[in-house]
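Q: what sequence does this backbone want?
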């Protein structure tokens, strides 16, 4: 073999060795590669243990050359301070166990969500048989408290429960009594309509009633608060309100009531126009259930 051929073969051998070295991966890189992928699951955001937002979403895990992974979180939240744009958490460590479970961890991190700086801590997670669970605490911007994020591919959304306002929405037949200083001034058979508002309160629609000087046009009472007790009774309350009955201004006070077994009981004071005293309105059920 002449020298020219010898050097050519040596160069080919060295090139092959170099290429072989490029293909070599470290155990850390192999571990990171094992958890790489996109995972669909439920993301919840909680403050002081109370879940403020839930959404079905996808989190991406990307293996990095240094054997760590990057977690890519999509935009999430329900508006205001609980709304975040997409962000990445880099440098997350991955460890493998003999059982085949991979552990994710990062004690603290900084990230950017849109124009908001995030300070995170206590990131911990597991990847096992294609299932992922990740928790972490994140403090956005100048927020004085941290939000706890939990991503779980096996979690189910919390079932939506009907609000007390939606439960009692409907029409109620009964008798409305109008009294002054404890003396009844007449009664009227009527149907009150309770409508759920977006803020969880109800609007009570009262039809026209009364005769002569005690006659009154129909009117609506908005912003009536509703709460529900353990026995299923819903309580209505509104300290004061103003409304119109036709062209007459009404000032109301001390509205209280209950709805139980589809029966409505309610009292309130109303001062029409320039009248110097209030009329007490008392509604009692005529039937045992709300009208359909």
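A:
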């Amino acid at each position: 073999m002449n020298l020219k051929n010898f050097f050519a073969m040596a160069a080919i051998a060295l090139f092959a060795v170099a290429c072989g070295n490029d293909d070599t991966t470290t155990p850390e890189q192999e571990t990171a590669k094992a958890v790489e992928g996109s995972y669909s699951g439920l993301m919840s955001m909680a403050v002081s243990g109370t879940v403020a937002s839930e959404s079905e979403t996808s989190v991406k895990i990307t293996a990095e050359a240094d054997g760590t992974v990057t977690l890519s979180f999509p935009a999430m939240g329900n508006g205001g301070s609980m709304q975040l744009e997409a962000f990445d958490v880099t440098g997350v460590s991955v460890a493998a166990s003999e059982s085949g479970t991979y552990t994710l961890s990062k004690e603290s991190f900084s990230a950017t969500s849109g124009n908001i700086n995030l300070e995170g801590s206590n990131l911990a997670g597991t990847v096992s048989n294609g299932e992922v669970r990740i928790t972490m605490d994140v403090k956005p911007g100048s927020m004085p408290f941290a939000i706890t994020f939990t991503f779980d591919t096996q979690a189910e959304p919390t079932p939506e429960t009907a609000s007390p306002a939606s439960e009692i929405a409907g029409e109620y037949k009964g008798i409305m009594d109008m009294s002054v200083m404890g003396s009844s001034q007449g009664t009227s058979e009527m149907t009150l309509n309770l409508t759920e508002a977006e803020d969880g309160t109800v609007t009570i629609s009262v039809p026209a009633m009364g005769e002569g000087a005690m006659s009154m046009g129909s009117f609506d009472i908005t912003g009536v608060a509703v709460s529900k007790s353990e026995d299923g009774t819903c309580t209505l309350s509104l300290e004061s309100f103003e409304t119109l009955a036709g062209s007459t201004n009404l000032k109301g006070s001390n509205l209280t009531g209950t709805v139980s077994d589809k029966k409505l009981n309610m009292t309130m004071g109303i001062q029409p126009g320039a009248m110097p005293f209030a009329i007490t309105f008392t509604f009692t059920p005529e039937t045992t259930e709300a009208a359909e």
